[in-house]
Design brief:
nine-stranded antiparallel beta sheet; 184 residues; Jelly Rolls; alpha+beta; 4 helices; two-stranded antiparallel ribbon
Length: 184
């Protein structure tokens, strides 16, 4: 279930808002310039569906988004608890960072958490199957897939080098609870 938890950025234990109401999540994120929506597949997908099958199942939605932004590439990334790169992949974006390009991710299945820092607050957004989230360029955030990651996601890139993280050096992420993960 998709959730949003909003806290002051200097008091991670003080919850200002917690909700699983998707309409409210959309409104709260839209207020800080983060679009979020839900997609449905055009076909039922097997858990082991490959990249071509996944992209075919969401072809109309992917094409509409591509027409809007003109992506250079679209791919599918899958992570599971036994993946040999799970720990490395998780650690890659656990620290607060930004990107010169916007980051768009659609969760085909599984889950992950984006921690978005804006206006003195952190918007902890648990994305689950069916969620599309768009983080504009230079959005201060970090991402946690959990210690035993379990998700499949479509990623969209407008630059050939993808999302290159520019780390802020702020240790804020260490003061927030880590995501325990869907595969835990």
């Amino acid at each position: 279930m998709t959730t949003l938890t909003i806290t002051p950025d200097d008091q991670p234990g003080e919850v200002l808002l917690y909700t699983s109401d998707f309409d409210l999540i959309q409104r709260e994120l839209a207020a800080i310039g983060i679009p979020m929506e839900r997609w449905r597949a055009d076909a039922k997908l097997a858990p082991d569906a490959d990249q071509a099958t996944v992209l075919a199942a969401y072809a109309a939605s992917v094409a509409a988004l591509n027409a809007k932004y003109g992506f250079q590439s679209v791919d599918v990334v899958a992570m599971h608890p036994a993946h040999e790169q799970a720990a490395t992949a998780r650690g890659k974006f656990l620290a607060e960072h930004t990107h010169d390009d916007f980051e768009i991710r659609f969760f085909v299945d599984g889950a992950g958490v984006f921690y978005i820092r804006k206006h003195g607050k952190v918007y902890q957004t648990l994305c689950t199957a069916g969620d599309l989230i768009e983080l504009p360029a230079n959005t201060t955030h970090w991402f946690d897939m959990g210690p035993k990651p379990l998700f499949k996601a479509i990623r969209f890139f407008t630059k050939a080098d993808g999302w290159v993280g520019k780390f802020t050096g702020d240790e804020i992420a260490k003061s927030f609870p880590e995501y325990t993960g869907a595969g835990a």
